[in-house]
Amino acid sequence: MAFIELDNVSKVFGQAEYATVALKQVTIRMDKGEFVSIMGPSGSGKSTLLNIMGCMDIPSEGEYRLNGTLIQKLNDRELSQIRNKTVSFVFQNFALMHNFSVYENVALPLFKRKMSLKEKKEKVDYYLHKLGIADLSDKNVSKLSGGQKQRVAIARAMTAEAELILADEPTGALDQKNGAQLMELLCQMNEEGKSIVVITHDEKIAGYTKRIINIVDGVITEDRKKER
Ligand SMILES: Nc1ncnc2c1ncn2[C@@H]1O[C@H](COP(=O)(O)OP(=O)(O)OP(=O)(O)O)[C@@H](O)[C@H]1O
């Protein structure tokens, strides 16, 4: 059983003459521990695909199974449970909580976890150190640079300790050096066993991953594995 299984997945937004077909009969299998990039022109369906993989959206047709669970059969509560347990998102605009501290942002995924405060603090401190942002712990995130914000976003994704990390243009707002550092971090997480899917327009960024899926007009045009 693959970790991610999309079978003939289509996604249509809107109805009748206003309908947009964002994905057309997409079939993808991904095993645990894969590191994949999704490339394609603007509007080709990349974010829609990532949203479906992350259980933020469901297919109009076809089947999506995550870790063997048929996602479109779940109700909203079950969907949010599987999302919280299995998936972490990293967005281009970081999606941090403004006016909260670095610590509070990184601790967010642990909010509802049944752990003692001490255990939570240990975990957050561990990832703050790992990302080299421990000295920023009390700082308001709105005062940080782009590269620092991205580190906070990655620390938050790591703290969740989810098996699947989905990143939509994670280096889009970063300069080359910070972009490369972020990809090194994702490589490290992949080596530690995480499954990672990254949307990117950038061949260099895709070069860090082990498999490249190209999508054009909602159709997969290429799916190739490579050695790093
Ligand atoms: N919620 C929505 N309602 C209506 N149409 C949508 C919605 N989301 C996406 N679309 C349409 O679906 C198509 C695919 O969009 P999607 O955002 O997945 O593309 P993308 O490849 O991620 O683009 P970009 O690289 O510009 O972010 C586009 O034509 C878009 O306009």
TrEMBL record:
Superkingdom, natural source: Bacteria
UniProt entry tagged with the keyword Cell membrane: no
UniProt key word ATP-binding: yes
Database matches in SMART domains: AAA
MF terms in GO: ATP binding; ATP hydrolysis activity; transmembrane transporter activity
Record domain ABC transporter: where: 4-228
Pfam families reported in the protein's UniProt record: ABC_tran
One of the record's GO cellular component terms: membrane protein complex
SUPFAM superfamilies: P-loop containing nucleoside triphosphate hydrolases
Keywords tagged on the record: ATP-binding, Nucleotide-binding, Transport
Protein family according to the UniProt entry: Belongs to the ABC transporter superfamily.
Name of the protein this chain belongs to: ABC transporter ATP-binding protein
Organism annotation: Brevibacillus parabrevis
Taxonomic lineage: Bacteria, Bacillati, Bacillota, Bacilli, Bacillales
